[in-house]
Amino acid sequence: MAEFDPKTLSKKENYRLLTSIVTPRPIAFITSISDVGVLNAAPFSYFNIISADPPLVSVSIGRKAERQKDTAKNILQTEEFVIHVADEDNIKQVNESSANLQPEESEVEHTKLSPMVSSVVGVPSLKESQVRLECKLEQHLVFEGEEGATDVIIGRIVSYSADDKVVKDGSIQTEKVKPVARLGGKKYAKLGKVFELERPE
Hints:
Layout: H1 11-21, E1 25-26, E2 28-33, E3 39-44, E4 47-52, E5 55-62, H2 70-78, E6 80-85, H3 91-96, H4 107-110, E7 115-116, E8 125-126, E9 131-145, E10 148-162, E11 167-168, E12 171-172, H5 174-177, E13 181-182, E14 188-189
Antiparallel strand pairs: 1-13, 2-3, 2-6, 4-5, 5-10, 6-9, 7-8, 9-10, 11-12, 13-14
């Protein structure tokens, strides 16, 4: 049996191991806005639900050379952001948005995405996403590592919106959304075969 001691691994080695183990991971495609009005968009796969009551999500955003990423900085300034579901139709633009642009450059403009007015928050949503979660900052945590820090953003969902074609009986039809998940390295995964299991009494 292979064993790995995380204390002896570099940040890159831990990252490679974790992202190949914890799969598939949903992708939070986040829009945020800077204090000078630049609309930022970036994907994050260290993302998940925390609770339904209150409706909370978490996103982990690693710093680069001790510098906060634009998304984290923007959320902490405005206390608002929008999470979009990455799907088969928008995944190439989602991936393209991860390019290293300057803070004054908009990934939305760079990838030719279409901003639209959100229902509750001031940060625009993107038309190319079929499902959107408008969020307000609930809590910000910082975890210090040996090779840098990570900003953990906890957001409270203040509005759900979805295209009519993917909604039925008050819930989202996942098969119609065709979400894309993140695997390790450069690999992604489609939804694949869906099956059901009855929960024990």
